[in-house]
């Protein structure tokens, strides 16, 4: 079945540093891929998504490209801010359903 | 627009007690689900529903019951609480087209079983 493997961290960066969080997937076909973010004390919210191979999702300065050759969907941001401190989850749906499979999450802390 | 509303936000139970976690959404979404979040485990699916009157088990259903009598509500019942059910519980909903659409999450319920 579909699954994701996500870099677990935690990751600690200084403000304005470059961020990469790795995510690789195993899937039948080419499902949509998602990154969700969970800020402290809150529920998850969609950060970005890509619906087909070679698509690039972007939002709030974050980007991720759907790469079928390497089965990856790495999250990147060129210059992180303290406000980006959160837990980030890579996710994809089980085939033909709305059920989401999540990675274990990567906690990012950005220091001023 | 309230989105997905979960109550309560915090709860402490004694072992063996039962309770219901409430979840309501106002987006007319067909698909609703319950997850639990534990350190180092990510989110694991407990139960889900593809529409009123239809529910099914997820990855970790034991000890939990659900029902879906209306499109809006999807309560999660703990039958006899155990310390292993100490966790943060999230309810989510999505439009439900069968190939993965944006899921909207509630704020979570932090449950402690002593």
List the helices and strands and how they pair.
The complex is a heterodimer of chains A (112) and B (114).
Chain A: E1 3-6, E2 11-14, E3 19-21, E4 23-26, E5 33-38, E6 44-50, E7 56-59, E8 62-65, E9 75-77, E10 86-93, E11 100-102, E12 106-111
Parallel strand pairs in A: 2-12
Antiparallel strand pairs in A: 1-4, 3-9, 5-6, 5-10, 7-8, 8-9, 10-11, 10-12
Chain B: E1 4-7, E2 10-13, E3 19-25, E4 31-38, E5 42-51, E6 54-57, E7 64-66, E8 76-78, E9 87-94, E10 104-105, E11 109-113
Parallel strand pairs in B: 2-11
Antiparallel strand pairs in B: 1-3, 3-8, 4-5, 4-9, 5-6, 7-8, 9-10, 9-11
Protein described:
The complex is a heterodimer of chains A (112) and B (114). With 112 residues, chain A is mainly β. In chain A, 0% of the residues lie in helices and 50% in strands. Chain A has no helices and 12 strands. Chain A has strands at 3-6, 11-14, 19-21, 23-26, 33-38, 44-50, 56-59, 62-65, 75-77, 86-93, 100-102, 106-111. In chain A, strands 2, 5, 6, 10, 11 and 12 form a 6-stranded mixed beta sheet that branches. The N and C termini of chain A lie far apart (41 Å). In chain A, 40% of the residues are buried. Chain B is an all-beta fold. Helices cover 0% and strands 51% of the residues of chain B. Chain B has no helices and 11 strands. In chain B, the strands form 2 sheets. In chain B, strands 2, 4, 5, 6, 9, 10 and 11 form a 7-stranded mixed beta sheet that branches. In chain B, strands 1-3-8-7 form a 4-stranded antiparallel beta sheet, with no helix packed on it. In chain B, a hairpin with a 3-residue loop joins β4 (31-38) and β5 (42-51).
């Amino acid at each position: 079945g579909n699954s994701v493997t996500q870099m677990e961290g935690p990751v600690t960066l200084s403000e304005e540093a470059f961020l990469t969080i790795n995510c690789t997937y195993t899937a039948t076909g080419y499902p949509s891929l998602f990154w969700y973010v969970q800020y402290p004390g809150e529920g998850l919210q969609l950060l970005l998504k890509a619906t087909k191979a070679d698509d690039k999702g972007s939002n709030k300065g974050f980007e991720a490209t759907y790469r079928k050759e390497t089965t990856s969907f790495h999250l990147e941001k060129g210059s992180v801010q303290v406000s980006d401190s959160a837990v980030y989850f890579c996710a994809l749906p089980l085939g033909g359903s709305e059920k989401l499979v999540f990675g274990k999450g990567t906690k990012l802390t950005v220091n001023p | 627009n309230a989105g997905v509303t979960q109550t309560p936000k915090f709860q402490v139970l004694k072992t063996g007690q039962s309770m219901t976690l409430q979840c309501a959404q106002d987006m007319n979404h067909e698909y609703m689900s319950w997850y639990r979040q534990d350190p180092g485990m990510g989110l694991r699916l407990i139960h889900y529903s593809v529409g009123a009157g239809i529910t099914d088990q997820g990855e970790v259903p034991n000890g939990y019951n659900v029902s879906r009598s209306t499109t809006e509500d999807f309560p999660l019942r703990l039958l006899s609480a155990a310390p292993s059910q100490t966790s943060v519980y999230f309810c989510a909903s999505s439009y439900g087209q069968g190939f993965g659409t944006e899921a909207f999450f509630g704020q979570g319920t932090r449950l402690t079983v002593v």
